[in-house]
Design brief:
Chain lengths: ~300, ~350
């Protein structure tokens, strides 16, 4: 029997990770550039709930601000990448450009943590806000909030993509940038909004994180492994695959650690490595992830019909 | 002053080894590897765990003492033993390097197998994540690297007494020179041209019967060996290994900036970029007290500075200061026919 605490951890982790993986994939398919600053953008926003708590507000009130902050940083990064792309920069150069943002955010995060420790005597180099969470029927509020945020954002995104003119324009821009422009779509505006939206999702996911997990300035680097693993398992370039990949990696990470911890109690320290092992196995067995496997099965069925 | 100069030379040598291996991978072959610190960390971990334990076996030091958990005591005993035993010290150094070469070669080959199935950008991320995983392993495994607090390593030049610092410096410079010569030789040989052909057009190289995937695997393995040796030299030079200190910023992003700044695909350019940035970094570290006016720790100025420089170079001079010289067919003909 799995203890409730473990099950809750896996569930909350899967909601947060699914959102993060979805955002990473979406940013990747829009510009064809993996954003190395993505997890730093997300985990920079974890300091917002702490700041709101210091100002005597509920950590949850920081969520809209986290959305705006994450979105704004992501928007700036998009503008920088666009500028470099117009100058004919290669993929390597564009990825290096995302590193520029990653470094600045990493430094700013540490400077802010240092400021909180030095001036406000709050040990911000490692913190968790679990004790400040509310309870519903004895269950932590973060469970309901993370589930609500995850499901509503995925639904909102699906509606946006399938039922609105903006969604159609975005799909067109992703499929064929040049063709969409010739059909009168303001591609850059569409992509800029998409990047803002995705940055916002990252910000919200990051802001939810310290309400259940322990946070430090290095979490971004560690979580990048897990986000990447989720995207690989789900299927590179597949948005819904990455959501599924996020849930799978979260559950496998927590449950594998739990079951193995009976024989190897030290295994919890290597949690991030487990997701990387799962990703490496997935690359060997299913190079295109779950989404690739599903599409192949569909194709086979169609051929049979 | 002499110590500062030596410090700059040593760091230049170590980073030159790292950036040249990066140049082989990216500059010549077009492999986008962001996880340079995986083999560096492996080299450092081997240095942290093997020579000390071997020395304990050789000298029959009390088996109740553990190299990792009683590190300070063991190192103290080994210092007194190795100070009078140059032969064992040199053998330990050679064994460490040979083990690193073997392990890194195998690791490179194993890693390249799944990595080369991925598109270029995901390969970079895969390597980065593998390196970060190795860092997590290093930080959490107390018996291997002393965990978060790190572990002291032996100095194979203790037998030189107060000149051990200079002895090791000469060894690092000699190793770096050897690697520079080898890399240079490779880059101007037919192998170098084959690597460039793969970079320029993989399909065309395949169509003339070259096993591009196999060559890429060999290339990654060779780069892993060179990087592993850089890790060994770094660990011996620092006198200790703290796995947490092997970060993506120090051992992956900085070398990338060095290569881009100097010019990818050009060994001289890469070395020039390395020299400039090592000088800037060391001067910044040495004169950090002059940055006391900053409202935050100067440690965080380094990534900001790196980001600014990277941003400027990418925007205004993405091909680097000394870009790769593209040769026309006439140049090749002249070279072949030895014409002026």
């Amino acid at each position: 029997m799995i203890p409730l605490q473990i099950f809750l951890t896996a569930l909350i982790y899967s909601f947060i990770l699914s959102l993060l993986a979805m955002g990473f994939t979406l940013q990747y398919i829009t510009l064809n550039v993996p954003n190395l600053a993505y997890s730093s953008i997300a985990f920079f926003c974890t300091y917002l709930p702490l700041t709101f708590l210091i100002a005597k507000f509920s950590p949850y009130t920081s969520l809209p601000f986290a959305f705006i902050l994450g979105g704004a940083i992501s928007f700036l990064l998009f503008k920088f990448l666009k500028l470099l792309r117009e100058r004919g920069m290669s993929l390597v150069g564009l990825m290096m450009a995302t590193i520029v943002f990653d470094l600045v955010i990493y430094a700013c995060m540490n400077i802010y943590a240092e400021h909180l420790s030095r001036n406000l005597q709050i040990y911000a180099a490692s913190f968790s806000l679990t004790t400040y969470d509310f309870k519903v029927f004895g269950l932590p509020g973060i469970l309901f909030v993370s589930a609500g945020v995850c499901i509503s954002l995925i639904m909102l995104f699906t509606l946006l993509l399938l039922k609105t003119r903006f969604g159609i324009a975005m799909r067109a821009a992703v499929e064929n940038y040049a063709l969409a422009s010739t059909h009168g779509v303001d591609v850059d505006r569409v992509l800029a909004i998409a990047w803002f939206f995705v940055g916002g999702i990252a910000g919200v996911s990051g802001a939810l994180y310290p309400l259940w997990f322990s946070m430090d300035p290095w979490v971004g680097a560690r979580m990048f492994i897990t986000i990447f693993a989720a995207c690989v398992v789900g299927g590179i370039k597949s948005i819904y695959g990455s959501i599924l990949g996020g849930a799978l990696i979260a559950f496998s990470e927590i449950f594998l650690c739990y079951f193995f911890s009976f024989s190897f109690p030290w295994i919890w320290s290597y949690r991030a490595v487990i997701s990387m092992i799962v990703a490496a196995i997935s690359i060997v067995i299913m190079p295109h992830g779950i989404a690739g496997y599903v599409s192949r099965v569909r194709e086979r069925r169609l051929v049979k019909i | 002053m002499m110590e500062i100069l030596l410090d700059i030379i040593i760091f230049f040598c170590i980073y030159a080894i790292i950036t040249l291996s990066l140049n082989i991978q990216h500059g010549y072959t077009g492999i986008f590897n962001l996880g340079l610190y995986l083999p560096i960390l492996v080299g450092a971990i081997i240095t942290a765990s093997i020579p000390g334990r071997l020395a304990m076996l050789i000298y029959g030091i009390d088996s109740k003492l553990d190299f990792s958990y009683n590190n300070a005591t063991v190192i103290d005993i080994l210092r007194s033993k190795l100070a009078n035993d140059p032969l064992t010290s040199i053998i330990l150094l050679i064994i460490t390097m040979l083990i690193t070469i073997t392990v890194c070669y195998v690791l490179g080959y194993l890693v390249a197998h799944p990595a080369l199935r991925l598109p270029a950008d995901y390969l970079a991320l895969f390597m980065l994540c593998l390196s970060e995983s190795m860092r997590v392993i290093g930080m959490q495994t107390d018996w291997l690297t002393g965990g978060v607090f790190g572990i002291q390593v032996i100095n194979p030049f203790w037998w030189l007494g107060r000149y051990s610092y200079y002895g090791f410096s000469i060894f690092v410079v000699a190793t770096a020179l050897c690697i520079i010569l080898i890399v240079n030789k490779i880059s101007i040989s037919p192998v170098g041209r084959l690597l460039k052909a793969i970079r320029e057009n993989e399909l065309a190289a395949e169509s003339i019967g070259k096993d591009t995937n196999g060559i890429k695997k060999q290339c990654i393995s060779l780069a892993f060996i060179i990087l592993g040796l850089a890790g060994v030299l770094h660990a011996f030079w620092m006198g200790a290994v703290v796995a947490g200190g092997y970060t993506r910023v120090d051992f992956s992003y900085w070398p990338w900036l060095m290569m881009i700044m100097g010019g990818a695909g050009n060994n001289m350019g890469t070395l020039f970029g390395t020299l400039i940035l090592v000088l800037i970094r060391r001067v910044m570290i040495i004169s950090k007290h002059t940055f006391s006016f900053l409202p935050f720790s100067v440690v965080w100025l380094e990534p900001i500075l790196l980001a600014i420089m990277l941003g400027i170079i990418l925007t205004f001079r993405p091909e680097g200061i000394l870009p790769e010289r593209s040769r026309s067919i006439t140049d090749y003909m002249r070279k072949i026919l030895k014409l002026q």
